[in-house]
Amino acid sequence: MRPDPETYYDEVIPGGAHWSLTMKAGLTLRLSDVEGGANVGMLFYNPLNLLERYNAPDTLKCQHTFKLTKGDCLYSDMGRIFCSIVEDTYGWHDTVCGNSTRHIVERRWGTKTYQEARNARTQNGLDSFLVEAAKYGLGKKDLAANVNWFSKVVPDDEGALAFVPNTSGTSAQVELRFEMDTLVLFHTCPHPLDLSPTFSPKPVRLEVFPAEPVSKNDFCRTSRAENGRGFENTELYRLTSSVNS
Fold it and tell me: CA gyration radius for the chain?
């Protein structure tokens, strides 16, 4: 990771929480796994057109990959790039397994309400996304396959996926450089395949700071030919949307 630049925002989000924010183009969001073993579910939308949202199949297909790591870009369903992974000390992030649900959490860990356990109550990823989505007029039909930062899954010989626990060491980090204005929804609830014996979601640190300019030979831009076209599409959109605003 490069030396810390001027930080606009710095916050530790507790485990089992949810939040949202709008990241402007030209900013970087750094996520840090504070204690090890965190999972950060995340979704992306165009705040000027909420029908445009993160597309996991296109993101994986056009970059010929199953996992996300440094050099990969996260695409919208309009062929534009919400953000690029410019640094990553973890090396493997899931975007195919989706969310934990109330049923999964109840079956695996039982139920603790706020009245019983206060902030230690059991929460799940799906309901967390729905709470944040509702703040912007979005609902269940607007959710898509999400990213799970700091979570690794591997297939067995039959193709079934299994969660690899505790692979995110303390202070593992990933930096997302935003290429267009993006509404970000996220939660810190457990991964849906996490088989931990106890419900113990981990905190994550968020830092927001200015991104370095994107050069023509930028690693994310040149890692795949498709990414070059994605950057061109995004730059054209930024130009025309600023003219029309």
Answer: 18
Q: CA separation (Å) from 135 to 126, 130, 177, 208, 227? A: 15, 9, 24, 22, 32
Token pair for residue 232? 């061109």
Domain boundaries, the chain: 9-244
100 backbone dihedrals φ, ψ, rounded to 5°: -70, 150
DSSP string for the chain:
-PPP---SEEEEEPTT-EEEEEEPTTEEEEEEESSS---EEEEEEETTEEEEEB-HHHHHHHTT-SSB-TT-EEEBTTS-EEEEEEEESS--BB-SS----HHHHHHHH----HHHHGGGS---HHHHHHHHHHTTT--GGG----EEET-EEEE-TTS-EEEETT-S-TT-EEEEEESS-EEEEEE-PPPTT---SS-----EEEEEEEPPPPPTT-HHHHSSHHHHHHHHHHHHHHHHHHHH-
Rounded to the nearest angstrom, the gap between the alpha carbon of residue 181 and the centroid of all alpha carbons in its chain is 15
Residues recorded for the chain: 245
Task: Retrieve residue 90's tokens.
Answer: 């973890």
pLDDT tens across 89-101, in order?
999 999 999 999 9
pLDDT band of 171, cuts 50, 70, 90: confident
Instruction: Write out pLDDT tens, residues 57-71.
Output: 999 999 999 999 999
Q: Which positions ≥6 away from 24 have C-beta within 8 Å?
A: 178, 181
- Mean pLDDT over each residue of the chain, to the nearest integer: 94
Instruction: State how far the Cα of 134 lies from the Cα of 155, in Å rounded to an integer.
Output: 34
Match 């073993």 to its residue by tokens: 37
